[in-house]
Specification:
This protein is 54% helix and 4% strand. The protein is mainly alpha-helical and 271 residues long. Helix 1 crosses helix 3, helix 5 crosses helix 9 and helix 10 crosses helix 11. The N and C termini lie far apart (57 Å).
Length: 271
C-alpha cells in the first residue's frame, strides 16, 4: 500500500506541473509525458510498477464514472524480458544425476525426482503430485494433469523406468508411513513439497559443481533442448511439454547462442 501510494503521489505531483487539476481531464499526451520520466536510472521493474499503479487507479476511476476519456496506459513496455535457464550439457546432467546416494531411500527418491523432470519433462508441480494411478509401468509412461487441467501421456526412457522401479521396490516402501498414494514422499511419509524439490535440486547442483543455479525449470528446459538437438519434431516436443501453443515451445526451447554459432560455423561456406 505504501509503495502504491508513493507511486500515485509521484504521478499526481508530475501531472500537476502540467496543469492537470482533474483526473477526468487527463489526456493521452500527458500520460506519455509522465511515461518519459520513467527511464534510466530507474529499474525496469520500478517503472513497470509505477505505470501499473497509475493504470489500476485510472481503471478504478473509469469504473466509477470519474476517469478520463483517454485510453488506459500500457505497461508492457517495461516488462523485463523473460529469461530461460541455460540448458545443462550432457556432462553436467550426468554429474547432477550421480549426486544422490542411491543406497538410501531418500537418495533413490531424489534420483527419481530428477529422472521424472528430465526424463519426462514434467513441471515440478506435476512431478510432486504424480499419483500411482498415473503410472503405466508396462507401457513405460506417465499420465499427468498440467495447467488448465490438461491431461497428457508422456513416455519414459528406459533409464528413468529402471530407477523408478528400483525406487518403488526398495526406496518408497521405507518412506511410506501414511498411506499416501503419491509416488514421491518425504522422509516422514508425507507428500514431497515443491519447496523441498527446489531445495533438493539446488543442493545437488551445488554438489555436482555446476556454477549456475539448478532448479526444476533447468531440468525441464534441458529435456526440451536435448530432444530438439537430437532431432525431435517441435510439435512433438510441444505435446510432451504440455504447451498450449507451439510459440511457447519455440521460446522455451531456444538453443543457446554457442550452439547456434557452432552450427553456423559448421554449415556456412564462408565461415
Amino acid at each position: 500500500i505504501s509503495a502504491y501510494r508513493g507511486d500515485l503521489s509521484r504521478a499526481c505531483a508530475f501531472l500537476a506541473t502540467l496543469g492537470l487539476d482533474s483526473w477526468s481531464d487527463l489526456t493521452a499526451a500527458q500520460i506519455m509525458r509522465f511515461e518519459t520520466t520513467l527511464g534510466a536510472p530507474l529499474a525496469r521493474t520500478t517503472a513497470q510498477r509505477r505505470m501499473s499503479a497509475l493504470r489500476s487507479f485510472l481503471k478504478f476511476l473509469k469504473r466509477n464514472g470519474e476517469g478520463p476519456e483517454a485510453d488506459l496506459p500500457s505497461t508492457g513496455g517495461y516488462k523485463p524480458p523473460k529469461t530461460l535457464p541455460k540448458a545443462l550439457s550432457y556432462e553436467q546432467l550426468k554429474a547432477l544425476l550421480d549426486v544422490p546416494d542411491v543406497s538410501t531411500a531418500v537418495g533413490l527418491r531424489d534420483r527419481v525426482l530428477m529422472e521424472l523432470i528430465y526424463g519426462a519433462g514434467l513441471r515440478v508441480s506435476e512431478a510432486v503430485s504424480l499419483d500411482f494411478s498415473g503410472l503405466d509401468l508396462e507401457e513405460g509412461a506417465v499420465r499427468v494433469t498440467g495447467k488448465r487441467n490438461k491431461t497428457r501421456l508422456v513416455p519414459l526412457p528406459e533409464g528413468t523406468m529402471t530407477w523408478l522401479r528400483s525406487y518403488l521396490l526398495s526406496g518408497r516402501p521405507e518412506l511410506a508411513k501414511t498411506g499416501s498414494s503419491l509416488v514421491l514422499l518425504n522422509q516422514h511419509g508425507r507428500p514431497l513439497s515443491r519447496q523441498m524439490a527446489f531445495l533438493i535440486l539446488a543442493q545437488c547442483g551445488s554438489k555436482a559443481g555446476i556454477q549456475a543455479h539448478v532448479g526444476p525449470h533447468t531440468l525441464r528446459h534441458t529435456y526440451a533442448v536435448h530432444l530438439l538437438k537430437g532431432g525431435a519434431d517441435l510439435r512433438a516436443v510441444q505435446e510432451l511439454l504440455g504447451h498450449e501453443s507451439v510459440a511457447t515451445t519455440q521460446v522455451y526451447t531456444h538453443l543457446d547462442v554457442d550452439e547456434v554459432r557452432r552450427r553456423y560455423l559448421a554449415a556456412h561456406p564462408r565461415a
